[in-house]
Amino acid sequence: MVSLCLASAVSLSADVVLNFGDPKGFTDFEYAQTRRTISTEFFANEVIVYLERAVEKVFPEGVVLTLDFQDIDLAGGFEPWQFIPLNDVRFYKSRYPPKAMFTYRLEDGEGNVLAEGDEALREPSYQERFSRRTGVTEPFYYERRMLERWIKSNLPKEVKKAEG
């Protein structure tokens, strides 16, 4: 298991810890162009600040969200059967939505568990819901937005369930 707790360049009042099971066993965790498994450190560096900001907007100071990924399926897919050699090009179509399976644990600043559980996210309407501005080439844009949406909309409900 790979565990990453990265300190972001921006000082935020929430911490997010990302752990990865076996990235080579993930459904689709490959770079386009090279088709090699993506470095978990690269993935974490690209999404961590956004996830910390999302947690900070919803929860009080000092909370820690830990996500233990068992599987990631990136948005888009490869279609090596195309007539021209495009086996290293990622096609973004509705049949290739981003997906993530993980366990989560949200703790307050004193280590008390606010919520925990298993989650299987799938965002079939990712192209409509998370429209990209022209020219934006941010890596893992759709995956990040799917996780941010879960933090903002589902995680507070889980905390309320645990409280009551």
Give a structural overview.
The chain has one domain (2-163). The protein is 27% helix and 26% strand. The chain contains four helices and seven strands; from the N terminus they run E-E-H-E-E-E-E-E-H-H-H. It has helices at residues 40-58, 126-129, 141-153, 155-163, and strands at 2-4, 15-20, 64-73, 77-78, 90-91, 99-107, 113-122. It has a five-stranded mixed beta sheet with strand order 1-2-3-6-7. Strands 4-5 form a two-stranded antiparallel ribbon. It is elongated.
Key words describing this protein structure:
two-stranded antiparallel ribbon; alpha+beta; elongated; about 25% helix; single chain
The secondary structure category is: alpha+beta
Strand order of the largest sheet: 1-2-3-6-7
How many strands, which pairing sense, and closed or not: the largest β-sheet?
Answer: 5 strands, mixed
Query: Helix and strand succession?
Result: EEHEEEEEHHH
Give unreliable regions as ranges. Answer: 6-12
Mean pLDDT: 82
Strand content: 25-35%
Helix content: 25-40%
Distance from N terminus to C terminus (CA atoms, Å) equals 34 Å
